[in-house]
Specification:
Layout lengths: L15 H12 L6 E5 L6 H13 L8 H4 L6 H9 L16 H7 L6 E4 L9 H10 L10 E5 L7 H12 L5 E7 L7 H4 L4 E3 L5 H10 L6 H11 L3 H8 L1 H22 L6 H6 L5 H22 L12 H9 L3 H19 L4 H13 L1
Parallel strand pairs: 1-4, 1-5, 2-3, 3-4
Helix pairs in contact: 1-2, 2-5, 6-7, 9-10, 10-11, 12-14, 14-15, 14-16, 16-17
């Protein structure tokens, strides 16, 4: 069954199973008072959270009492009528509708009953933020029947903060819904996880991302779009960011440098290696990203040498990649892969960028 709201521009892409489960929970009025949305950045956690908020806020939601919906516009008999026969909506009616005032407020982030708690630029979410939440939770909602707290980067909550949250999770007011967005639910205390179902967002298939970008009238050429889709690696949020004209240029530039690096390695022109590595620049984030790209390219070539059914993560032109892989030996590719891994480790533990890149040149050139 496809969830009826999927055709809309704000609809969730991918994560169909989660969506169906949530849709069922919402329509039957059996939403848990807390959910953990676990997945990588860009895998749809925020979109799912927005979907849940809109679905419970939507004026078409069976859970919303008429007095809280549009009291001002309803006549006295309308209200009486509604009380005597609770509104039921067919299973295929769109929920959320994305068109009513309540849905609009959610989209514009203007709903007073939805609060977002985040790191606020800090490394972690401290106990003060949760203490605030614990007192705020006692105030009933304004517009909706439910008060929603979205905790972003929930895995960064300190143990003290988690323990404070636990007190509320154990005995929440009936109108409260917590959405804990995290990347790695394992970082949360077992006691928290046992009180909230963990919903894991899955990488979105390339085909769905392609369709989504096309539907949004993405102006990239086919080839550039493929590069973006590969780079996004199943994250629709990432794909959207990358598809932006300002972001796509640096990606294409990085791919160019990566291709050049792989060509130097294939042609064994090790004397030009330092010059190509110098083009990686000296900004840590940029170098880390380029190394990650080269690692993906190397991975593709290794897998292509050992089987043809693999899904490529870097190369958009499969035939070209196959030809390139034939110019390497498996041993040299594995050596390259290992050297890149060591370089990435060194950079992660704050190693000197120039020394790390020189280390790669010496190791591969020798
Ligand atoms: Zn609506």
């Amino acid at each position: 069954m496809a969830v009826a709201q999927q055709d809309h521009a704000h609809a969730v892409v991918g994560n169909d199973e989660l969506l169906m489960r949530l849709d069922r929970d919402i329509r039957s009025g059996r939403l848990s008072h807390a959910y953990i949305l676990d997945g990588r950045k860009g895998s749809g956690r925020h979109t799912l959270a927005r979907y849940i908020c809109a679905a419970i806020a939507c004026e078409n939601c069976p859970g919303q009492s008429p007095s809280l919906r549009d009291e001002d516009q309803m006549g006295f008999f309308d209200l009486l009528d509604d009380v005597s026969s609770p509104r039921e909506i067919p299973a295929d009616a769109p929920l959320p509708c994305w068109e009513c005032l309540a849905c609009e407020k959610v989209l514009e982030e203007k709903c007073p009953d939805i609060q977002v708690i985040g790191r606020d630029g800090k490394a972690s979410i401290g106990v003060e933020a949760i203490r605030f939440l614990r007192s705020d939770v006692l105030i009933p909602p304004n517009d909706l029947d439910t008060k929603v707290y979205i905790i972003e980067d929930a895995e960064t909550m300190t143990v003290q903060a988690q323990n404070a949250l636990l007190l509320t999770l154990e005995e929440p007011p009936p109108y409260v819904l917590f959405l804990l967005l995290c990347d790695g639910a394992d970082h949360l205390l077992e006691t928290i996880r046992s009180r909230a179902p963990v919903l894991r967002t899955r990488p979105i298939p390339d085909g769905d991302i392609r369709e989504y970008l096309r539907a949004r009238r993405c102006t990239l050429s086919e080839e550039d779009m493929e590069a973006v889709i590969l780079r996004a690696d199943g994250c629709i949020g990432q794909a959207l960011t990358l598809a932006d004209a300002r972001s796509v240029k640096p990606i294409l530039k990085m791919r160019e440098t990566c291709d050049e690096f792989m060509e130097v390695m294939a042609a064994r022109r090790y004397d030009t290696l330092p010059a190509v590595l110098a083009r990686f620049g000296n900004k840590r984030d940029g170098v880390v990203e380029l190394l990650a790209l080269v690692t993906l390219a190397t991975r593709d070539l290794i897998l292509l040498r050992h089987g043809d059914g693999v899904r490529l993560k870097y190369y958009t032109d499969r035939v070209g990649a196959e030809e390139l892989s034939c110019r390497f030996t498996t041993k040299s590719l594995l050596g390259l892969y290992a050297a890149l891994g060591r370089a990435a480790d060194a950079l992660e533990s704050n190693g000197n960028i120039r020394l790390t890149l020189m280390g790669i040149a010496v190791e591969l050139g020798s």
